[in-house]
Design brief:
The protein is 60% helix and 0% strand. The chain is mainly α. It has one domain. Helix 1 runs antiparallel to helix 3 (55-80), helix 3 (55-80) crosses helix 6 (150-158) and helix 4 (92-121) packs across helix 8 (171-188). The structure holds zinc ion (2 copies). One zinc ion is lined by residues 118, 122, 131, 134-135, 217.
């Protein structure tokens, strides 16, 4: 289906607003909960690094993340322009099943894409010009969630473009998925391990990607390349111990 140019501008404005607002809400809430609330017992017991965030780091993370929201909004504004809303095909219990299956599919595809593209972004020949900005945060704050260079930001979401255009994923699934994605991303950068520590030894839950793992990634600048799960890191031997 060709892009409808008359709808590009309003769609870009709507999606830039959505991405920026959603980022500010997610990162801002995590900041308030984990760091502005100084007596939060979870932060006291489970902060991942001793050093305080520097004002310069937080400022850069905030500004570059808002720029990423702009890139995401502009890109998907063009991709979505003129596309109809895709409804679920079923109603009732079947709709719940259909919704869950599509959501699981997106999480699986994105988790795989993220692992491999992220691992490639750490190749010494690629890292300096693609992904180095994200790693200027050795001690990332929740505001680092979308702190990417412009090209890195495009790579982050490139996987979704063909799916939006050519795979009939219901629109409500995309919406819920996108909220889930930023939520999990912010948790990975919140500087505290919010999940129960016992989960890290649990036979099933240990396959999640814990905040501890992504924080280790920022310290070591290698290993733990996963996003939602630690599956690819475990299978490919890149899990940091
Ligand atoms: Zn990285
Ligand atoms: Zn990160």
């Amino acid at each position: 289906m060709p892009v409808d140019t008359t709808q590009v501008f309003p769609m870009v404005v709507a999606l830039v607003t959505l991405h920026a607002t959603r980022y500010l809400l997610a990162a801002g809430s995590a900041w308030l909960f984990f760091w502005a609330w100084r007596a939060n017992p979870m932060t006291t017991r489970r902060r991942l690094q001793h050093a305080a965030f520097t004002r310069e780091d937080v400022r850069r993370e905030l500004l570059t993340s808002l720029r990423t929201a702009l890139v995401f909004g502009a890109l998907f504004g063009v991709v979505y322009a003129g596309l109809p809303v895709v409804p679920l095909s079923h109603t009732g219990a079947r709709a719940a099943l259909e919704f869950s299956a599509w959501l699981g599919f997106l999480l699986l595809v994105h988790d795989t894409y993220f692992y491999w593209s992220h691992r490639l972004a750490h190749h010494p020949r690629v890292f300096p010009w693609l992904h180095a900005l994200h790693h200027r945060s050795r001690n990332p704050s929740p505001f680092a969630a979308l702190s990417f260079g412009v090209l890195d930001a495009v790579v982050q979401v490139a996987w979704a473009v063909p799916l939006v255009r050519w795979v009939p994923v219901p629109s409500v699934v995309w919406l819920v998925f996108s909220f889930l994605a930023i939520g999990i991303n912010v948790i990975g950068h919140c500087g505290v391990e919010p999940y129960p520590l016992s989960w890290q030894q649990h036979p099933v839950l240990k396959w999640l990607n814990f905040a501890t793992m992504h924080n280790q990634h920022h310290v070591a600048v290698r290993g733990n390349y996963g996003l939602y799960s630690s599956a690819w890191d475990r299978w490919m031997g890149t899990l940091l111990r």
